[in-house]
Amino acid sequence: MPRRRNGEIPLPDGWDYARDFDGKLYFIDHNSRKTTWIDPRDRYTKPQSFADCIGNELPLGWEEAYDPQIGPYYINHVNQVTQLEDPRLEWLSIQEAMLRDYLHTAQDALEAHNYRKQKQNS
């Protein structure tokens, strides 16, 4: 996709942007006659899932916002829900569970291998 002189990726054909009453940017797809909070250029620049994220990134469709009354909260624009829990923590717990399962499986396989080897040697 061509870049503008200032390095910004241009919006796809048929797209425009505007601001709501609070000044928040939203995007207009004139092709489908729909609006979205998700910048259509994000699909080129943001990770597609939590598995693709590096460091403290949020994937495509997620946004961290701040409210002075409640503090930080998270917006999932894809599913159109908000939550107080950091979704990166949920992904971290999923990764930890996958790692635990992998280590248990590897340990079981190693023990089975050692058992077979021991049987062969006796």
From TrEMBL:
Organism superkingdom: Eukaryota
InterPro entries in the cross-refs: WW_dom, WW_dom_sf, WWC/KIBRA_Hippo_Reg
Keyword Repeat among record annotations: yes
Pfam families per UniProt: WW
CC per GO annotation: cytoplasm
GO function term, MF aspect, one: kinase binding
SUPFAM superfamilies recorded: WW domain (SSF51045)
Gene3D superfamilies with a match to the protein in the record: 2.20.70.10
Keywords, ordered alphabetically: Cytoplasm, Phosphoprotein, Repeat
GO biological process: cell migration; negative regulation of organ growth; regulation of DNA-templated transcription; regulation of hippo signaling
Domain named WW: residues: 9-42, 56-89
Compartment annotation: Cytoplasm
Chief place where the protein resides: cytoplasm
Annotated protein name in UniProt: WW domain-containing protein
Organism field: Leptosia nina
